[in-house]
Amino acid sequence: MLKRLYDWTLSLAESPYALWALALVAFAESSVFPIPPDILMIPMIIAMPHRAFLIAGIALVSSVLGGAFGYFIGWGLYETVGLPVLEFYGKTGKFEEFATTYNDYGAWAVLIAGVTPFPYKVITILSGSTGLNFAVFMVASVIARGLRFFIVAGLLWKFGAPIREFIENRLGLMFTLFVALLLGGFYVLKFL
Asked: Measured between alpha carbons, how far is 36 from 29 in angstroms, rounded to an integer?
């Protein structure tokens, strides 16, 4: 089923409504949809390199708006579903402790999930359920998603189809390694 969904999403890149499809996929992926917008972006940019940064901009705006929707899902469902379950099990105190810790580092979580292969939708919903400051959430989302989409667009614009395999197979790993090195550097600086 996931393969069919992937193939269907990829076929949207050839549609005359590809930009609208990209906007819809980027929005939905930030809160519920399992296929990342990169699947549409890559063939669209290869076919129309002169529109690479427009395509990245549409993905960015739609993804951040979808992230805001995910945030509100977490915020709204926590009150109606999550809290009663936690109260039933007597765990509201534990969640409040977790929420405080998460919110201390929430901007980093949003940045990491926004650029790495970690599902961004998980962080958008979690940020809403813990009450992470919405402005902090939005700024971190714009930075993270902007980096991700504009780096992909820039690489495809500059190098074209030959860089496609690298982006599809290794860019997520490169982003993950970069984030790990960045966090490791901060950790070393803090304790030196």
From this structure: 6
